Amino acid sequence: MPEFKAPLRDIKFVMNEVLDSEKHYQSIGASDASPDMVDAIIGEGAKFCEEVLAPLNQIGDQEGCTLTEDGVTTPKGFKEAYQQYVEGGWPSMNAPVEHGGQGLPESLNIILSELIGTANWSWGMYPGLSHGARATLEEHGTPEQQETYLTKLVSGEWTGTMCLTEPQCGSDLGILTTKAEPNADGSYNITGTKIFISAGEHDMVDNIVHIVLARLPGAPEGTKGISLFIVPKHLPDANGNAGERNAVTCGSIEHKMGIHGNATCVMNFDGAKGWLIGPENKGLNCMFTFMNVARIGTSIQGLAAAEGSFQGALAYAKERLAMRSLSGPKNPDGKADPIIVHPDVRRMLLTQKAIAEGSRAMIYFAAQQADLVQHGEGDVQKEADDLLGFLTPILKAFCTEAGYEAANHGVQVFGGHGFIQEWGMEQIVRDTRIALLYEGTTGIQALDLLGRKILMSQGASLRNFTKIVHKFCQEHEGNDDMKAFIEPLAKLNKEWGDITMKIGMTAMQNRDEVGAASVDFLMYSGYICLAYFWARMVDTANAKLAEGTSEQDFYKAKIQTAKFYFDRILPRTAAHAQMIAAGGDSIMAMDEEHFAF
Amino acid sequence: MAEYKAPLKDIRFVMNEVFEAEKLWGSLAGTKETVDMETADAILEEAGKITASLIAPLSREGDEEGCHFDDGKVTVPTGYRDAYKTFAEGGWSGLTGNPDYEGMGMPKMLGAQYEEMLYSADVSFGLYVCLTSGAALAIDAHATEELKQKYLPKMYSGEWTGAMDLTEPHAGTDLGMIRTKAEPNSDGSFSITGTKIFITGGENDLTDNIIHLVLAKLPDAPEGSRGISLFLVPRNHVDDNGVVGENNNVTCGSIEHKMGIKASGTCVMNFDGAQGWLVGEVNKGLAAMFTMMNYERLSVGIQGFAAAERSYQNAVEYALDRIQGRSPSGAVLKDKAADPIIVHPDVRRMLLTMKAFTEGSRAFSTYVARFLDISKFSDDAEQKQHAEAMVALMTPIAKAYMTDRALDSCIAGQQIFGGHGYIREWGQEQLVRDTRITQIYEGTNGVQAMDLLGRKIVSNGGKLFELFASEVSNFIDEESDNEAMAPYLGPLAASVERLSDATEFVLNASKDDASEVGAAAAEYLDMFGLTTYGYMWARMVKAAAPKAESDDFYAGKLNTARFFFSRLLPRTVSLLESIKSGSQDLMAMADAQF
């Protein structure tokens, strides 16, 4: 199992040096988030993740969860780790003070999520899944609902879930059938079956608060007839503690490819008592308010996979001896050279590194936008909201696709050992695979980006971002140190707009063109975004080197990795551009019955 | 999981219509008397039946149950033993075996199709059988008459299985470092001592003997890969009458817990002075292995796309069945709550990607098998030499490109299932896990890429590339008047041109940069693979076009070809750009800077 070490140096580089978080926190009035405080929090979080969570990661995979009459038992040590997490006050970090939280910015929580996720993704999902329930209650709950449920979720005494998917509907929530019948006391009886409910049932806390999507009698068909309900596992008693058992049970847990330490539950609601939250039939709209942040949360899984597998592969590549370097022995006293001398191994390591560090910059940037959405005002808030809306599908789909690629490189660097469970590399691949599916598959994100975000805004949301890139390129025009990065970036930034325009034109004639281009377009966009953030990192590294620094290697490595990214990975945009230009004819022409004979 | 259906229609299309097997077999000295179309066709039919009905139902349970290790014994999953017995009785292990020792003597072009079906049905099960055939191949090529007489008939009949013992804990890719020792005995045999790891099928309870082919070093052997010899080491002694006796100090120490192929026991094998016999010449063990390696590497490639075929079959069924969302161009199933997901362009994109690569792989593996057959069965020296050169060139591509695209396809097949793709009972995630190993064993795909670009291309100044390029340009010339081919020949020629550009770049840059080959290898192999598939698709178009109007199968071929050329082949553009950035970006970084 690769030993997890929190990448604190790089986190600080991105936060403080590239994204100037001190200024950012001042601008949103987060006076508690002083540099010292932030440092201390991240340092403590890193310690908890390295010492408590990481050692449980493999145990969680091997042991998995079990379902008995008493409910779901989580792997050995998970519950105790959760206790420590609650005692450390971690769940309340980013919650509003009025609900018992510490009021620290979301962006800080994102960093913590990265650390937790890299150390042990399955474990992190238990507290992580509370996010949706908490956000729903914060935004749409009545003061009473907030008092009853939110404070307990914030303290971590209870956890939450989001119950969306049903056997017949995943991507298409419009066809869900769970029913909510009104009772005389203002509550509702919820009846239906939900599947794929992460952390739907477990033994870490004494109550679980489900936010359930269901239909009221007579509700309109499709997505416009969905409402949200709070359905606790135990009904709160007079003192607000977990009381009588509600008619919500876990029917089974799934046997999955990965994230074995996290229980994926079939939840049966048999006339369970629930309460409406938010307006009737506006359930999906209510959810969209926090979807962006939830999806950033999933994009972190890609970053975590890239980081974790890179750490493992790098250590192995320096240690494992096989063959000689083609340019002459590098370890003449040994029987062979460490495999890091081989160009192809370096190619894989650099790909992982470029993805991990690039994704980190992208995600942290988006997290700052989330802060601005939450705490900013007026134009600042609106701009951030637009930008976040644009970046979210890219982050979710691109970072997880790229992270999955990185995780597979990690297995490959290990050769045959990569396929063996004890080394931990294949677990990262299995655990990460889900990230391309849940919270909206890659295909769904791609449609969201190209269809809903870009074409529906007539390209405005793309222009918001390309303007930022354009401005950056202009600022560095004539700077020789930046030329190798700025030139290709500026060229692609322009091409991006042109390609989008063309898709928009063809899509007016034929609606299928959007879907035919969407995933290639998303990946194309992702590579350009990553290029922008790598260029920014180069700019920062150049400045540090010019100032004079004792960390020459660190900054030079940044520039070197950026060069690798621009030369070897960014050219993938050319193929995507051609595939987009080829259009959807060859995709749509085939008769359904001709796919297989 | 959909029921597996052997893709016999496509197999016959590739064998008979694209590559004209009958004509070839009729022309080769070694096949014209032994192989006829009727037999070949009956074999395909039977292979399709037995793999679908007997083997395919085992794979899901086999994955759940896995192999068990207890006190040196490995137990295979329930159902495997009975199925193996029935299967072996069909003589499948000896399908391509030497008839002089009771093999059936069928060509690889046919064997490749059967292997595909076997692996599609269940990769883990297939490994027991195919490794036996592989070991038999090496014995047939290099062992003494006595050893052949003694072991081959029982391996062909499946009474005994075989295993290849190469890797050691510290030596995988770099076999030059192995430590297993072979001490000569006075009777001409050797005592073999050492530990081997990752031995697929090294121990199992399917048969009462297992024949290991072991790489080891003689006491005075030179260092490195020039001092390795190959030995036949039966797990149990076999007396002169072929009766299986006591254990030969060959024991299984443990089995690995793996990501996939869980029903195939991956063993640590301990040899404690086990009695073995030299196969081939002293210190030429690696060379002896190479004969077999070409076949094995093709076989691993087939294993990859076979899994992708299974995943594709499942995905098509699911995409037709699962209703979700509406078609962007208007509802298709108006009386249902939603449309089947096959209406969605992106789902179709994934399906077509799978189809284009899987059918491309089937054509490609048949193409390579064809050259293996020519090199084995031809008595025309020039033809043989040409075929050998093509085998040498195509083998690393067959192994690496087919498995790389197979993993992509299995991942796409999983993606089409949405969340269900992640759940074990649906079978799609198992295919991903089972396929992941194919990029690693029999030489990682990085090693294959080095073999292609270093050994096969650069070391002879690009001659083998020219061999391929001229075959393709001849084809393009011949078809230049064929109207049906017009949309494809241009992109194909452009792709060969780009590959030529990349070849030239590497040939030049590698003159004074030792890292260049390694820096370009992976992308170069990708480019070569894509271009070869372009050629395969063009040949399929040629065969399909005349019948496309009257038969939907052929119309589907043309559609898939269009998709391949417009939506997959453009990847070569990016790959060329990456290659041309040279080695500097990879090598400049100091180890500490990572």
Overview of the molecule:
The complex is a heterodimer of chains A (597) and B (594). Chain A has 597 residues and is α+β, with helices and mostly antiparallel strands. Chain A has helices at 8-18, 21-27, 35-53, 57-63, 78-87, 106-128, 130-140, 143-155, 283-319, 343-375, 378-413, 425-433, 442-455, 460-475, 483-509, 512-547, 552-569, 572-581, 585-588; strands at residues 66-68, 71-73, 159-163, 179-182, 188-198, 208-214, 227-232, 234-236, 242-245, 248-253, 264-277. Chain A contains 19 helices and 11 strands. In chain A, helix 11 (378-413) packs antiparallel against helix 13. Among the domains of chain B are: 8-156, Butyryl-Coa Dehydrogenase, subunit A, domain 1 (Orthogonal Bundle); 161-283, Butyryl-CoA Dehydrogenase, subunit A, domain 2, CATH 2.40.110.20; 444-586, Four Helix Bundle (Hemerythrin (Met), subunit A), CATH 1.20.120. Chain B contains 19 helices and 11 strands. In chain B, helix 1 crosses helix 16 (516-544), helix 3 (37-55) packs parallel to helix 6 (108-121) and helix 11 (381-416) runs antiparallel to helix 13 (445-457). Chain B has 594 residues and is an alpha+beta fold. At the A-B interface, helix 10, helix 11, helix 12, helix 13 and helix 16 of A face helix 9, helix 10, helix 11, helix 12 and helix 13 of B.
